[in-house]
Design a protein that fits this description.
single chain, alpha+beta, three-stranded antiparallel β-sheet, two-stranded parallel ribbon, binds zinc ion
């Protein structure tokens, strides 16, 4: 779809009013400090702030997914207002000996202590937060809820 200058559509923000997120399930502070080993290797967690491109990607992918369930919304124009309360986005920065640093990204906060490895995994749980009025975990098909039931 093309838009003339001055007619850019505004993003529609979606707010999820219920959350089961637990801040205590995030990495402990001692795991969030960059400590070098004698060989130069290190690993630590770093919280992503709302301005972080990955954080924004989580908001967009979740917003788009929620909007797909509602016919009156155009998914590509929808974004989550914020990560549901109690959840947080972290990068795990790892550098092995003689290797380049890499960052693996996770979303923490699920009551079981489980973590999501992508917005794609997390959005399933966000839809359940937004739509399951009974908050019945049996109804959530996300990987953390499924793992908890085994
Ligand atoms: Zn779930």
């Amino acid at each position: 779809m093309n838009y003339a200058w001055g007619q850019f559509p505004t993003l529609q923000k979606i707010r999820v009013h219920y959350s089961d997120g637990r801040p205590t399930m995030r990495p402990p502070p001692e795991d969030c400090v960059q400590k070098f080993n004698p060989d130069g290797s290190y690993e630590y967690f770093q919280e992503a702030k709302p301005g972080d491109p990955y954080y924004q990607r989580v908001l967009r992918e979740c917003g788009e997914y929620l909007a797909q369930q509602v016919q009156s919304l155009q998914p590509s124009l929808c974004v989550l207002d914020d990560i549901p309360e109690g959840y947080s986005v972290y990068g795990h920065r790892v550098k092995g000996v003689g290797k380049d640093e890499r960052t693996d990204r996770y979303i923490f906060g699920h009551p079981t202590g489980g973590r999501y490895r992508s917005p794609n995994e997390f959005k399933v749980h966000v839809l359940w937060l937004a739509s399951n009025e009974e908050h019945d975990y049996d109804d959530c098909p996300c990987k953390c809820c499924k793992a908890a039931m085994k």
